[in-house]
Design goal:
heterodimer; A: mainly alpha; Cytochrome C Oxidase, Chain A; 2 domains; globular; B: 164 residues; alpha+beta; five-stranded mixed beta sheet; elongated
């Protein structure tokens, strides 16, 4: 805590420092800790889900139940909502504040708003816990909550609070940018907040879809204000949001790879900052017009629009390929600076024993398989083979469970010590966590992907399925082994967090990782936000208007009754 | 903004890769006629009596050309009398080499239709009719699996297609 006291009381933060002002410490710290609190319960369910999907486990322990969320689909809902919605959003809000604050080298505009946002997100999280524990069967609608499955109202209210909180966080970031811009009329935006802003623009546009779905269709149906719902329209609105949101999770990881990893790895700076900005803008523009690739098998969307969204989905892979080159080149510089020789020598001289760097490198390795399987899913006709099979969760556990989660964990390994004012309790434990997670998640992806090709459906308590083939049984049992490895990794992760908070005695010696200047050679057009927001909105309107009109079913659509996942009788 | 030489090579290669993927998808769509499900019509699950789904079952349309009209509901598939024993998951029999067109709708929530080792994968959205047509060329028993979460007993929702 000495470090805090040695800080000046002014609002300017010393950006090269790993010390924190108390205001920054509490705001960023509570977001990060709340995010990891959500992840704990969500991630803890994951391994137990693999056990209960394994026929061998179910045969050996027929009476075993899962801890806390004891009903399988309740645990599955918790796993999705807590990990994919709350962990990501609360972490992103916190890290976005940190990046904005430090890179613009000024305190946030609207601190009271930022605190309101935090309280909303936290109350949302507690409501979700309450409804899942209190009403396990009826609230088990999974994190996609497709109507006509309708959960109790508190479920939707929790989600609304999360989204409204994230919108307020977005407002704080843009207010701060506005203030910075007034003080720096001609400067280029530093790369990190540029990525954060592109991310928020894309997220805000996308979240309008899910906001309409929840506020107009799902919540009123749950409250009993309307007796009917429209499933096809709900799905279209959800996937307007549902695909861009995966980039909302990914872009902060890219921000770390582009702006923090160069410092951490020893490259000093990213290979090409202008191209990094191009990549961020492409992600912002091309993320929204892709969502129909989640509805390739839907009857109420025309095959023409499915084809058009396929083209945009392949387009949005381009910024990721650009990132692969840019980060690869940066890492090559880092490896050569550290003595790597020859064509491949630089790969072996990376900081493989530094948990912050190793976590991100392992995340990137998984993103290779995650990205390739993503291109497979996006290929409209091939999707028929894998749609709604366990291949799909195998894919996104390489992307969000691999690249995104590992990068966030890597960030936490330097940010938590700054927040606490004490060094990470054990780097060795962190390294063991990183490699068990990397190996476990890769094995998880491979085995669950093979199970999917053998016909195992996703989001299914397969351990009790009467129809599994021999191959499916084999791969599901292998998948449970990866669950054991991941359970060890989760325990190592949280043991280190708790010990860092309460038992670490060493002072912090590293952290910060901020660049306060943008590359002056960046073309000015890349920072004309009005133009790029216009392009993003134009594309979204262009490729979504007709599918929405097609999906709206004013006659039969709105006659669909509401159901609980607990039984076949419609809700009264 | 100068592009590095290797970066230009990389971006060209990426452009070629994405371009060839798009071309392959177009070829599959336009030449091999592999189409994704598209509009087949809307339906009110509470009023099936005057629709195609009033008569569930397997119909022979012509030589090697069959139609399966099926209802998905919590937590079973229903193909009427052609599914065999009423209390058990349905078993549908199809001669080898037939082309079968599936018509499926949902009585309640969203379901899925997937057939092991065959290219059929349908999201059964209430209020919509789903249709897909596929050939069955290999003899054997293949499971029809509900692959969209539909509530408590989702894991037990299946049927069987016997290709003879």
């Amino acid at each position: 805590m000495q470090l805090t006291q040695s800080q000046p009381k002014s609002s300017a933060v010393n950006t090269q420092d790993f010390a924190m002002l108390n205001s920054e410490r509490w705001l960023v710290g509570l977001h990060i800790l709340s995010a990891f609190f959500a992840l704990f319960w969500g991630a803890l369910m994951g391994p137990f889900q693999t056990f209960h999907r394994s026929p061998a486990f179910v045969a050996a322990f027929p009476n075993a139940t899962m801890p806390i969320f004891s009903y399988y689909y309740q645990a599955l809902t918790a796993h999705g909502v807590l990990n994919a919605l709350f962990f990501t959003t609360m972490f992103i809000t916190g890290i976005s504040y940190y990046v904005t604050w430090r890179s613009f080298n000024r305190s946030l505009v609207g601190m009271p708003l930022a605190w309101v946002a935090y309280v909303l997100e936290l109350v949302g999280l507690l409501l979700i816990f309450f409804v899942l524990l209190n009403d396990p069967q009826r609230s088990a609608v999974l994190f996609t909550f497709y109507p006509p499955l309708i959960a109790p109202p508190i479920f939707y209210i929790g989600l609304v609070l999360l989204v409204v909180g994230s919108w307020i966080g977005l407002l704080v970031v843009f207010l701060t940018y506005g203030a910075w811009r007034k003080e720096n009329k001609t400067a280029r935006i530093p790369l990190a907040p540029f990525g954060v802003m592109a991310n928020y623009v894309m997220y805000f546009l996308a979240s309008l879809g899910v906001a309409v779905e929840v506020l107009v269709l799902a919540l009123p149906a749950s409250l009993g204000l309307i007796q009917n719902t429209d499933p096809q329209l709900s799905r279209a609105l959800f996937w307007f949001f549902g695909h861009p949101v995966v980039y909302f999770w990914l872009i902060p990881a890219y921000v770390s790879w582009y702006t923090m990893l160069p410092i951490q790895s020893g490259a000093k700076r990213v290979f090409s900052e202008p191209l990094a900005k191009v990549a961020f803008l492409m992600l912002m523009v091309f993320s929204v017009p892709t969502g129909i690739h989640h509805m390739f098998a839907d009857p109420g969307i025309s095959s023409t629009w499915k084809a058009i969204h396929t083209v945009f989905t392949l387009m949005v892979a381009v910024p990721s390929f650009m990132t692969a080159f840019n980060i690869g080149a940066t890492l090559e510089i880092a490896g050569r600076n550290r003595g790597g020789k020859g064509l491949f020598g630089w790969m072996f001289t990376q900081k493989w024993t530094d948990p912050v760097v190793a976590a991100q490198l392992m995340g990137m390795l998984q993103f290779i398989t995650g990205g390739v399987t993503g291109l497979i899913n996006a290929s409209a006709q091939i999707n028929t083979v894998v749609h709604n099979t366990s291949w799909v969760p195998a894919h996104f556990h390489q992307t969000v469970g691999g690249a995104v989660a590992m990068t966030y964990i890597g960030i936490m390994y330097w940010l938590l010590p700054m927040i606490r004012g004490r060094a990470l309790y054990s780097k060795k434990m962190a390294l063991a966590q990183v490699y068990t997670w990397g190996f476990g998640m890769t094995m998880f992806g491979h085995t669950l992907g093979e199970a999917g090709l053998a016909g195992v459906p996703r989001r299914t308590l397969s351990g009790l399925s009467p129809y599994l083939s021999e191959a499916a049984t084999y791969w599901l049992n292998a998948n449970a082994v990866s669950g054991v490895i991941l359970l060890i990794s989760v325990i190592l992760l949280y043991a280190n967090i708790v010990l860092t908070l309460f038992a670490s005695k060493e002072p912090v010696t590293e952290g910060g990782y901020t660049v306060t200047k943008g590359d002056p050679t960046t073309p000015a057009i890349l920072e004309r936000w009005g133009l790029w927001v216009g392009v993003a909105v134009f594309l979204a309107v262009l490729v979504w208007t007709i599918p929405f009109i097609d999906a709206i079913n004013l006659t039969e659509g709105f006659q669909i009754l509401r159901y609980s996942p607990a039984g076949p009788a419609p809700l009264k | 903004m100068a592009l590095d030489k290797y970066e230009r090579v990389w971006l060209t290669a990426v452009g070629g890769l994405i371009g060839s993927f798009m071309a392959a998808l177009m070829v599959a769509y336009l030449i091999f006629d592999i189409r994704l499900p598209t509009f087949e019509g809307r339906i009110d699950p509470a009023n099936l009596s005057n629709t195609k789904f009033a008569n569930l079952g397997v119909k022979k349309l012509s030589e090697n050309n069959y139609e399966v009209v099926m209802l998905a509901k919590m937590w079973s598939f229903d193909v009427g009398k052609d599914g065999g024993n009423p209390g058990a998951p349905p078993v549908v029999r199809i001669p080898k080499g037939s082309r079968v067109t599936f018509y499926v709708t949902s009585l309640d929530v969203t379901h899925g239709v997937y057939v092991e080792d065959h290219s059929i994968n349908l999201e059964i959205v209430p209020g919509q009719i789903a249709r897909q047509s596929i050939p069955f060329n290999r003899p054997g028993e293949f499971r029809i699996i509900c692959n969209q979460y539909c509530g408590t007993a989702h894991q037990a929702m299946y049927g069987t297609i016997v290709v003879e």
